[in-house]
Amino acid sequence: METENELKILTISENYRLFSIYDQVINECGMCYFSETINEADQILNEKDIDVVIIDLVPDKHLGFNTLNNISASWPNIICLAASNEKNADDAIAAMSYGAKSFLAEPFDKEQLKTNFYSLLKGPVAKNKLHSSIAAGLIHDIKNSIHKIAVTSDL
User: Fold this and answer.
1) Which of 35, 4, 38, 3 lies closest to 19, judged by CA?
2) What is the pLDDT of residue 127?
């Protein structure tokens, strides 16, 4: 169930596995949506107050670049990320020129992905609710760390 301060993330990909990776990493931050097509993504973008879009550049990176460009132009407050199964500097540079704030390449290290994701959301384009979601996620991480210390400590 959605809440007002919940982060809303849309993954656009023909590969559900990519969505499941992000869903596992950021599910404590908010609501994740998945779209296999541009038309479905457009419908979600028009109906929901999406904060972050993750666009898979595979299998058609040119369609991905066009989608990045269109979303950046139509919804300038949305943070766009590009993802690929290839580490390719040219694709990363192109994705950034089309509006991506970051380029993520497989294999995804979940902790690094989470750190990268949080750092992007702290930027000047982030909305107040993004900061609330980040804070909630960080508080959750801190509580887990304290619990682990308490359980393993001899105190």
Assistant:
1) 35
2) 46
pLDDT band at 98 (very low <50, low <70, confident <90, very high): very high
Task: Name the pTM for this structure.
Answer: 0.71
- Concatenating the DSSP letter of every residue in the chain gives ---TT-EEEEEE-S-HHHHHHHHHHHTTTEEEEEESSHHHHHHHHHHS---EEEEE-SS-HHHHHHHHHHHHHH-TTSEEEEEESS--HHHHHHHHHTTEEEEEESSPPHHHHHHHHHHHHTSTT--HHHHHHHHHHHHHHHHHHHHHHHHH---
Token pair for 76: 């300038």
User: Bigger pLDDT: 154 or 100?
Assistant: 100
